[in-house]
Inverse folding.
């Protein structure tokens, strides 16, 4: 599929359309310049059901699954969903504002819904995405870039790092950014980090100022999601025990003076240039 259908009022012809009521007009004069990639599965880590469509159309039955009770009243949407089998579905016209990013910030600009297009992939943090999903995503990004002045591609975790981890550590950013050049401009700090990644890969540890200081599992998932954009995969795919024995992490709270961030509204994650000395003995917990 090449998404070659005509673009009419923000709708791409030739793909299934399920209009969502969860949208509104973009602010006057706002230009669409950002694509945000999400991941979603309802119930969590289960694929193929109609839970996502029902969530986006306000018809989710809170009694159909235990996890639905807490989300059935949410009013959320995305412009597109790409199912596990590669089927694309459009819920909101690209000319309108879908409610997908929430409280968010990208390179100093808040309220990312105003100037972004949201693409959901049916998936989760724990499992790889399907090859056909990448094929459809790349084609869709190309179609959108031909119609809108897209300058950057980001994950939900990039624009809302305190709250979100998607598209998660299993998403292969190099398939849509390294090879296709679609990720757009990065901050000077992240560009410098990429330029020096060979030197850092030889180091025994690194320091990351992480805005989600929760369980070891959530921190590891967050770090993998962020660092997979800038470091070789052999650094990202180390077994969990390495995080407790060789990798030294410096976790700072959102109110830390080092972060200089205010709660719920922050720039992309800051990755420190400093390299820490590795622990010489195993830690008792991850």
């Amino acid at each position: 599929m090449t998404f070659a259908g005509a673009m009419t009022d923000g709708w791409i012809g030739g793909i299934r359309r399920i209009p969502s009521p969860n949208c509104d007009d973009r602010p006057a004069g706002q230009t669409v310049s950002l694509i945000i990639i999400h991941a979603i599965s309802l119930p969590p880590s289960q694929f193929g059901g109609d839970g996502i469509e029902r969530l986006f159309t306000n018809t989710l039955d809170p009694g159909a699954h235990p996890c639905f009770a807490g989300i059935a009243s949410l009013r959320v949407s995305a412009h597109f969903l790409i199912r596990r089998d590669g089927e694309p579905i459009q819920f909101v016209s690209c000319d309108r504002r879908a409610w997908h990013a929430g409280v968010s910030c990208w390179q100093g600009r808040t309220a990312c819904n105003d100037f972004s297009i949201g693409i959901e992939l049916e998936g989760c943090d724990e499992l790889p995405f399907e090859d056909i999903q990448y094929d459809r995503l790349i084609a869709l990004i190309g179609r959108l870039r031909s119609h809108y002045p897209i300058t950057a591609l980001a994950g939900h975790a990039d624009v809302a790092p305190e709250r979100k981890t998607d598209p998660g550590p299993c998403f292969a950013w190099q398939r849509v950014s390294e090879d296709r050049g679609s990720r757009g401009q990065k901050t000077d700090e992240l560009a410098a980090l990429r330029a020096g990644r060979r030197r850092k890969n030889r180091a025994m540890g690194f320091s990351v100022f992480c805005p989600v200081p929760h369980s070891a599992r959530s921190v590891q998932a967050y770090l993998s999601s962020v660092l997979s954009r800038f470091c070789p995969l052999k650094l990202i795919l180390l077994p969990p025990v390495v995080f407790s024995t060789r990798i030294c992490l410096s976790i700072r709270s959102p109110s830390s003076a080092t972060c200089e961030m205010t709660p719920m509204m922050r720039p992309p994650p800051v990755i420190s240039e400093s390299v820490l000395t590795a622990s010489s003995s195993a830690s008792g917990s991850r």
